[in-house]
Write a structure and sequence with these properties.
single chain, about 400 residues, alpha+beta, D-amino Acid Aminotransferase, Chain A, domain 1, Dna Ligase, domain 1, Rossmann fold, 3 domains, 4-stranded antiparallel sheet, 13 helices
């Protein structure tokens, strides 16, 4: 689960990580008052108006504006940003609508560096990454100047070791004095503690800035939480979640107890089990098609959940066919068959549907489908089903 920059900085502040002063605005009318308060409190006549969306590259996309003209200019800038479709490399061509703005104090910046923590699944450890070349072009730095990027893996039994914090600080160019070395090590240690305690899957600060007065401050902040840990943070996750920024169907699936991820293909998949779902998407591509979604109904789905799953798949106008691939272990094939028939009738299915059933009560499930009187193609195997749905979609095109 992603959160906004201002929310990330609220989390950082709880762990003693220095952040600039700022306030979020949900309406343009709030911006003047916030700007006035910040200038009065910080004695700095400069503020930065930042669009809040779940995507990086906001600066290059025109979503971050420095304002030196006080409340009036800040309001004018905010009126242009609020409601705009902000387009960055991470939003795609359609962009993302700006519904929140963060008004932040200006800083006198001397240097910018990059720091991130993430889960390295290959190493099975949390990795901390840093680069002395922070800023908007960090992707280009990683691609063309990999020597400017340092990655250290953290032993989960020891946590971030002091020698690792010092090594990273020196690599970032922040070890020139005892004070900056200590301040950097303290921030890195706090970031790791935050990462673990908050069940994060990623923390990124780009840039971490050094002001001309020597302060080290998180000027930006991106945090992604591991949703598998939601049971430990239910109230916090519910408060931080911005449903306007998340896929509506994925949220609907979450509420229904299903796992759904939208993709860019045209063949909808309804499968039980994450491994089988991945294999189903692979075999569809092998047959020449493209999956429109990942949808795992789990091992204990009932008829109502199957009907909801069909509705989620069909909510996408790009879906031109559906492949149902079920292996009945805990789940019974007759339950799935009844759900498929009910959903087909209720939703008035108008795209090709191929169903492959195997496992518990498979004969009864096939009988239910065969006697339904509906235009449902039966498949004898995954490969057969993939070939049939790809051919059906091509034939209907």
């Amino acid at each position: 689960m992603k959160i906004h920059e201002y929310q990330a900085k609220q989390v950082f502040a709880r762990y003693g990580i220095p952040v600039p002063k700022g306030e979020v605005a949900f309406k343009v009318e709030e911006v003047a008052g916030i700007t006035e308060r910040l200038i009065a409190e910080t004695k700095i006549p400069v503020v930065v108006v930042k669009a809040q969306v779940h995507a990086g590259g906001r600066g290059k996309g025109g979503g971050v504006k420095v304002v030196k003209g006080g409340p009036k200019e800040a309001t004018e800038v905010a009126s242009k940003l609020m409601g705009m479709q902000l387009i960055t490399k991470q939003t795609g061509a359609e962009g993302t609508k700006v519904r929140r703005l963060y008004i932040e104090q200006g800083l006198d910046i001397d240097r910018e560096v990059y720091v991130a923590l993430l889960v390295d699944r290959e190493k099975r450890r949390v990795a901390i990454m840093g680069s002395p070349a922070g800023g908007m072009d960090i992707e280009e730095v990683a691609e063309h100047q990999p020597e400017k990027l340092l990655t250290l893996h953290i032993d989960p039994m020891l946590g971030l070791a002091p020698y690792q914090a010092r090594e990273m600080a020196f690599f970032l160019g922040l070890g020139s004095s005892k004070e900056s070395l200590g301040a950097t090590a303290k921030i890195l240690d706090a970031l790791y503690k935050c990462f673990i305690a908050e069940d994060c899957s990623m923390i990124e600060i780009n840039p971490l800035v050094i002001t001309k007065s020597g302060q080290i401050v998180a000027l930006d902040g991106k945090v992604t939480f591991d949703e598998s840990a939601e049971f430990r943070h239910k109230a916090q996750f519910a408060e931080l979640r911005d449903k306007d920024e998340e896929d509506a169907i994925e949220l609907q699936a979450k509420d229904a107890g299903l796992s759904y991820v939208a993709l860019d293909g045209n063949i909808g998949c309804l499968v039980n089990g994450a491994g089988l779902a991945m294999s189903t998407m692979d075999i569809i591509q092998h047959a020449g098609g493209t999956p429109a979604n990942f949808l795992d109904v789990g091992g204990g789905a009932n008829q109502e959940q199957v009907t909801k799953a069909f509705g989620m798949i069909l909510s996408s106008p790009q879906v031109k066919g559906i492949f149902v691939n079920i292996f009945g272990g805990i789940m019974r094939c007759d339950v799935i068959a009844n759900g498929v028939v009910a959903a087909t009738k209720e939703l008035g299915l108008k795209v090709p549907l191929v169903v492959r059933l195997e496992g518990t009560n498979v004969e009864l499930g096939r009988k239910i489908l065969d006697e339904s009187g509906l235009a449902i193609q039966s498949a004898s195997s995954m490969e057969d089903g993939a070939q049939k749905i790809v051919a059906a979609v091509r034939g209907a095109a």
